[in-house]
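Troubleshooting: if your tokenizer reports a length mismatch, compare your output against this known-good record of 261 residues.
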Amino acid sequence: MLSALVMVAIALFTAYWGGWPFALFWLAAGIAIMVEWTRMTGVEPRLLVQGVLAVGLGVLVALFLSEAKLGLFIAAGLSFLAAGALLTRDGSAKIWSATGFLYALPIVLVPPVVRDHPELGILGLLWMFAVVWATDIAAYFTGRTFGGPKLCPPISPKKTWSGFIGGVVAAALGGMLVAWAGQKFGLTLPFGFLGTAVISIVASVASQVGDLGESALKRHCNVKDSSHLIPGHGGVMDRLDGFWAVCLIVAAVLLTIHLTS
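Known-good structure output:
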């Protein structure tokens, strides 16, 4: 509980601050995720590949903060992705190296993009936090309370359909609560209340699928936790797998809006 409270406090404080401190916070999270990914999947030479990919993530954050052109941003990202893959020894491990870099990108870039977005801003970011946290908490307690059929026993034997439904309902309520509270401070989400409820449900489902996806990876790699970095919680991937999936959904929505506008 203490670890969770510290993480929540840091996330909220940096979200309020915004700018480069917020971007650096998520850069650190993304680098930790990439390090855990490459360690679990046995990428070698590990430190060299991790160093190159970490520099690549840092460069992308610097380009974002300096408002660089999209073409330069894409070119830099592909260059570091290719460099990490080329430095990796084994042929199959090259894929793990590249996917580790790609997996870290949504965590590194989406929160700062949302924080700076003119129509989302800090309220959009708080919505993302609320949906993921409500999903995790409600899924745990409703699953423990009601039990019932298992959601996906081969991947995660403890997760139940009752927990899944409880998480979805809580996320919809949490998302609408953020939208309602934001209006009290003159802030609005661009979806309306009904739209916020719908996208909160979609995000909750994505969050739980993201959790299952990380569980599948850990089973494939035969590890219990992605690392032991966070006392009582395991690794950064273990804490941000659901948030990663929501970041991916938000990125897809923002990219679609950008391309069609």
